[in-house]
Structure formats: structure tokens, C-alpha cells
Design brief:
155 residues; alpha/beta; two-stranded antiparallel ribbon; 5 helices; 18% strand
Length: 155
């Protein structure tokens, strides 16, 4: 399954995917966070950057990348006003465009809102079996902080 088809420098079907997720949130949510892998992580970054789904309080991105759609490149070239916290994990042996995101995302999201964790694997989730233990500890810490921040906001 794909969230969009890349046609030259445009993402065909992206708007349809975003509308689907907004409808899903309205019917089955509200959802606090979004998790994505690869293209799903790129989509999750768009949702967090644009704050498209207002209930989102965090995003978790595995092997994500900066979207290459021409309109989204403009969006990601500017510092975000959205302070939705992002956790980004990518393997050291992942594709260059995923590794580039490790440096680019912290520059494009609000100051201090992006946590980056590398693992020694490739284009895969960090697991204890592939040396991803440190990334999993960082994820656990991120989730604990996001949960604590959200509890304080409700009180």
C-alpha cells in the first residue's frame, strides 16, 4: 500500500490520503499520535508539520524522509510554528535520503521538538535484535515525556 504515487515532482493522491486520515480521526479517534514507517513516516511528518489533525500531540517517524513533492519542499524549507513533538529513528545503513532527514528534521520543526535516535540497522525498525536498543530507550523516554506533558496540559 502507498499513500501517494510520485509523478515527477508531485505526489498524486496525497490530498486523498490526508482526507482519509482526517475522516478516520473524526470517526474512530481522536488520536493523540501518529506513527509511520518510510513513506508513512513522510506522511506523518506532513500531518505534524501542518498540524492537519488538530488532536495530534506527537509523531513517531521510522526511516522517514523529507517529502520531495514541490509544494511540500517549500513547507519543509521553513521553520515550523507547530510544536508537535517528533521522534525520528533511522538506521545507519538506511538510504541517504533517510539519513539526510536526521539532520533536516530538527532544522525544520520547532526548536527542541525533534528527538533523533540512530540505530545500526538499515531501512527497518529499531529492535533489540538488530542493535536498536539505544533507539528503543530513547523512544521510551520520548513517550514518557510526551505523556507527562499531555497529562499536565489536561490538569
Amino acid at each position: 500500500y502507498e499513500w501517494w504515487d510520485r509523478i515527477d515532482d508531485r505526489y498524486e493522491g496525497l490530498d486523498r490520503s490526508i482526507e482519509y486520515l482526517k475522516e478516520l480521526n473524526a470517526k474512530s479517534g481522536p488520536f493523540d499520535g501518529v506513527v509511520g514507517f518510510s513513506q508513512g513516516a513522510a506522511l506523518a511528518s506532513v500531518l505534524c508539520k501542518k498540524h492537519t489533525i488538530e488532536t495530534l500531540k506527537f509523531g513517531i517517524l521510522f526511516s522517514g524522509f523529507i517529502p520531495r513533492d514541490r509544494d511540500l519542499r517549500v513547507l519543509f524549507s521553513k521553520k515550523s510554528k507547530s510544536n508537535v513533538p517528533i521522534f525520528l529513528s533511522t538506521g545507519e545503513r538506511d538510504a541517504d535520503y533517510c539519513l539526510d532527514a536526521l539532520e533536516a528534521f530538527p532544522k525544520t520543526f520547532a526548536e527542541g521538538s525533534c528527538v533523533v535516535a540512530r540505530h545500526p540497522g538499515g531501512h527497518e525498525l529499531p529492535l533489540r535484535t538488530n542493535g536498536g536498543g539505544d533507539a528503543l530507550i530513547a523512544l521510551r523516554s520520548f513517550l514518557a515525556k510526551v505523556g507527562a506533558d499531555n497529562r499536565e496540559a489536561r490538569e
